[in-house]
Amino acid sequence: MTHAADESVTRLPRAVPDTPHPATERPGPRVWASDDEEPIELIAPDSLTAEMVGHWTYLMLEGAAFAMQGLHPVIRDVTDKYSVSRTDPGGRAIRSVDSVLRWTYGGLEAVQEGTRLRSLHEPLTMRNEAGKRISALNPGAYQWVIATAYVTTAKAGPLLIGREFTSEELDDLLADNIRIAKILRVPMKGYPQTRAEFDAYYEHIVTEVLSANDTVRADYAMLRKSDTEQLRALPYPARPIVRALARPFLRFNYLSIVGLLDPRLRTMIGVDWTPQEQRRLEQIYAVIRFAYKVLPERLTYFPIAYHARGHHRAIQKMKVRELKSAAYKVRPKQV
Asked: Residue 35 has what pLDDT?
């Protein structure tokens, strides 16, 4: 990024008290990225977003968001040129998870991560097949990256909590999505601010922007067979053994991705979705929801999420205890 962006990191500790947000009653703390910018709201540790994102299996569902991102022509072209998703898919996935967790639970580090990501993507420019210069920071593409997180989460209610999200919950999820967009310095001009605006935005993207090519369709055909380029590249003695061990995970991954895609996008990538696959997906997540109810949070949440949520609960208990202070009996009388 520019020098001004680097300088802004040194000003992060300036925080201000919570203030009501029009889309939610539970805003996170607010911090300034720099003196001349609007304050940025962080994700509240006790929000619906924070409750879900930290679960180990939530990031499986985010695979559907990555899938939708790959259907955006600009994102696909830049990714094909610069990403290591084909040569190091595991490492890329881990680094992506690290970033998402920092947005949600990193506190002031979340804003620093937003600055880092923009700086990291700034030099990623190229010319596409039509000779047009494109960039990883193309406003429409960068907006779509964050918008896909709301799309997949909103649709995943029956899997994540066993029912559809309520209207109020969807409003909260969108408000947090907007917060994340601002944390990551996404251009906000034209970014939907209400669910009605988001629905119109989504329809435009699906019907007029997204597309798939033969390579994309071949990748999904391979994934449906629980196969990958990395498995095919293994030497013979190891290949069948590793493939057998990986098959349940790859199948789970496929169901989690394709199960959350818009039927129009399934057609675009050349896959069918059967009633049997839908039932299997629901059965798997019914088991996962039960496990999350009976297992301790230390086992079901990523470490950073577990500790962030525990820290928040400890602070809330302190606030309850401090209300017993005698000073609070005098405070209402003060002017």
From this structure: 56
